[in-house]
Amino acid sequence: MSLVEITRQIAKAETKHDRVAGSVQLIAVSKVQPNERVAAVLNEGHRVFGENRVQEAAGKWPDFRAQFDDVKVHLIGPLQTNKARQAFELFEAIHSVDRVKLAKAIARLAQELGHCPELFIQVNTGQEPQKAGVLPEAADQFIADCVAMDLPVRGLMCIPPAEEEPALHFAFLAKIAARNGLSGLSMGMSSDFERAIAHGATHVRVGSGVFGERDYS
Ligand SMILES: *Cc1c(COP(=O)(O)O)cnc(C)c1O
Fold first, then answer.
1. 2-19: average pLDDT
2. Predicted confidence (pLDDT) at residue 1 exceeds the cutoff of 80
3. Residue 78 Cα, ligand 1 centroid: separation in angstroms?
4. Within 13 Å and on the Cβ side, how many CA atoms surround 177?
5. Per-residue pLDDT reduced to its tens digit, 84-130
6. 206 Cβ closer than 6 Å to some ligand 1 atom
7. Which CATH number fits domain 3-211: 3.20.20.10, 3.30.1360.120, 3.40.50.720, 3.30.360.10?
8. Model pTM?
9. Nearest atom within ligand 1 for CA of residue 95
């Protein structure tokens, strides 16, 4: 796989599922990838990346930003409240807002700093105990709470359970977003982004499909 190939497949899925051309944003998930691979994708012209750890992002993106213009980095992993301030410095978007304490910390920082990353509310659609995200039955209230805090809520995000058909979760997330008047949907990874696009994804988070397999050794 490669950036070119994934970009082509996204365009194809847009056409096939009657989505506006260019309406799906590819977030190239660069976590754990060697810097050479990330630099290669930057050199190919891609500018939107995803990281799941604040510390890891802090270690590489300031340097890349110094070398490349218009870089946008999205936090797609969990955020501890005590790292929210650092997240404001590192990320243009946060996909993992999932509790009132964190939402309040973000709202305070937004007021203090006069800007705020774009926010996605993570929904634990599979109700998995080990997974982050607001539970589906609490989602409407939590979205309303965030909107009441004047937070820039762009949409919802989910990570479906590994062993279930992701399309069911994508459809479910799209339904929750629609009834709350939210248009952004961060869903779909390397193995299922086409199905996510079929169900309305506006942001797909693709790692290994763009960069190759991650080497955790
Ligand atoms: C790692 C990660 C991805 C990308 O996974 P791939 O299977 O490599 O495409 C997407 N979303 C989240 C939240 C991730 O942590």
1. 98
2. no
3. 13
4. 27
5. 999 999 999 999 999 999 999 999 999 999 999 999 999 999 999 99
6. yes
7. 3.20.20.10
8. 0.98
9. 13
Neighbours of 72 (CB within 10 A): 16
Closest among 123, 126, 52, 147 to 90, alpha carbons compared? 52
Q: Is 6 in the pocket of ligand 1 (CB under 6 A)?
A: no
* Whether residue 1 has its Cβ less than 6 Å from ligand 1: no
Query: In angstroms, rounded to a whole number, what is the distance separating the alpha carbons of residues 16 and 69?
Result: 33
Q: How far away, in angstroms, is 137 Cα from ligand 1 center?
A: 25
Q: Which of 205, 206, 216 to mutate to test the pocket of ligand 1 (most atoms within 8 A of CB)?
A: 205
Q: Write out the two tokens for 139.
A: 């989602």
